[in-house]
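Re: your question from the hallway

Yes, I did run it. Sequences:
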Amino acid sequence: MATFWIILTAILVSSACAILGCFLILRRMALVGDAISHAVLPGIAIAFLWSGSRDSLWMLLGATVFGLLTVFFIQSLQAGGLSSDASIGIVFTALFAVGVILISLNAQHIDLDLDCVLFGEIAYVQWDTLTLGGTDVGPRAVWMLGITLLVILLVIGLFYKQFKLCAFDPALAAACGIPVVLFHYLLMGLVSMTSVASFESVGSILVVGMLIVPAATAYLLTDRLGKMILYSVLVGAASSVGGYIMAYALDASIAGCMVAVAGILFVLALLLSPKHGIVFRYARRKFAAR
Amino acid sequence: MWNWIVAILSDPNTRWILLGCLLLGFSSGIIGSFTFLRRQSLMGDTLAHAALPGICIAFMLTETKSVGLFLFGALVAGIVATFGISWITRYSRIKQDAAMGIVLTVFFGIGVVMLTRIQHGASGSQSGLDKYLFGQAASMVMTDVYVMGSVCLVLLIACLAWFKEFKLVSFDPGFARGMGLPVAMLEQLILLLTVIAVVAGIQAVGVVLVAALLVTPAAAARCWTDSLALMVLLAGVFGALSGATGTIFSTLVPNLPTGPVTVLAATVLFAGSALLAPRRGLLARRLRSIQAKSAYLREERATLQTISAQRAQQERGEL
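Structure:
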């Protein structure tokens, strides 16, 4: 049963991340996901200090607020003329520093472990269960991630056309009367929500990895957004299952192995993708030369 | 005020940490200026994460916890990572930011796998390794400062020796290529120097925050000047200042970690610069726009007045 819950949790995380990751890759904001997942730390710490409990709802709220704040700060610095990579670097390191300081100053009073927040262990998912009306209904993480995934599917499904246009051609989208900024914040809100919902249970490596790597792999395999999202989710799921098997064989970190498998799949796509792969392009060039 | 500074400096241990953080801030500020101008500010973050498997392999192979060995492992992993990034961007349609993200997470993931293997292994104690994630400036000793000092020296000499080349490559790679400079090699050299700075910084401020030492002082310095030489120098000074502030504050308050305070000090310097700098600062720009607006209004009012005066004269003349 433990295996089932762990793999289910991983697939939920990777699917949510894979869908959002496609839009991040297309908008050239791959590292914004990394930044958000680190910058939400003060949100988690403040929510914890304020509410005094490890109740997920407060942490989710605090972290989402800080995720959006991060995006806002990055946007403001960019509007001030700073390049996007520098704005990201300045904002998320500053917020992360605030988070580390908050936690280390209050470390005696609270039981919020830095390692635990950042490197949550997916193997413990099954023990933190949710009870509804006296009956055990399964791990809390599965519920939280399931709801997150549902929200993502709903929002992206409802506004698919708008998101698509914003991803490929923001200028055209703005000209068509789509509120580009609103959709930007909506996407970033979803990213922060996902990173937080996954954080506690699976740790930040898995989130950041699954945001970028499967989507990049899918980007090498197709030119259509719909297919890219589908492939991305499939690659994420395959990495989850493959990573679990690898972790079992090696007796090592499950999240780390999942990201490693995603990396292997990416390298395979990089080499062997029919249209964009190195091997086939090389072969085609040889063939054309003859 | 003066008394407690003297009191802090009289503790030899603190003196070493202070010197180490100062040197670290200085050298990362200098090399950070080039990565900043080349829009590779997040390279620091990427390389810091990517160094983890190198550190783990160094430990697995030798079973000893020596700083020099870890630095060597991290250096090798960092170099492999920079090649990976250039390789992915050159041979596929993946853009640089995504390539950096992929290398960052996959290397770090592999590093975590190795870390847990070490933890579960018979040799047990890995307590020195997790310090690398969050940094432990307080555990710096004299030899570490020597390492830091030599790193600083190497970076400084390299930046001085190739200043003109780095300048050209940072501002106009196309022109540099036209002049016959080995641009690809120079770019790789800048990345190599960045790796060295990052690896030196990991021990003091940790994996995530090492990025800040490269970006934030450089961005702050950029606000004040348009001259590269001055910017590089200012970035170094800002970095050193942040390092010193971090050390001093963390010795004053119990449980306050040095790395994050250093980063916040750099952030405050950046915020001050972005606000107050004479030409590029927010305040100066706001002031300029207000002045421009009021000058425009004054001019317009004057024109209106002359027009109405002329009209009045015309009317009087007609009467």
